[in-house]
UniProtKB/TrEMBL annotation:
Biased composition (Low complexity): 42-51
Broad class of where this protein is predominantly found: membrane
Subcellular location: Cell outer membrane
NCBIfam families in UniProt: SS_mature_LptM
Keyword Repressor tagged: no
Aminoacyl-tRNA synthetase is among the record's keywords: no
This protein's UniProt keywords: Cell outer membrane, Lipoprotein, Membrane, Palmitate, Signal
Superkingdom of the organism of origin: Bacteria
Name of the protein: Lipoprotein
Organism of derivation: Ancylobacter oerskovii
Length: 72
């Protein structure tokens, strides 16, 4: 007589939770595409530590909310 193997049944019960967690972690890495924002209270017209003026990045794009922003 062989002993029944209960490991596959336990793994099958955990599989949906593991897939949901993996999907949530993958989506958490998504962000806003574009250059980094300067720290609050800094002026863009002042030269940087290397003495060069920062270049203009163009017009500011309006923030469009995304359905999954609440997860971030």
């Amino acid at each position: 007589m062989s002993r029944p193997n209960r490991m596959p049944a336990a793994a099958l019960r955990l599989l949906p939770a593991m897939l949901a967690l993996g999907g949530a972690l993958a989506l958490a890495g998504c962000g806003v595409k574009g250059p980094l924002e300067p720290p609050p209270g800094t002026a863009l017209g002042t030269p940087g530590p290397d003495g060069k003026m920062p270049k203009d990045t163009g017009p500011v794009k309006p923030d469009k909310p995304f359905i999954l922003d609440g997860l971030l």
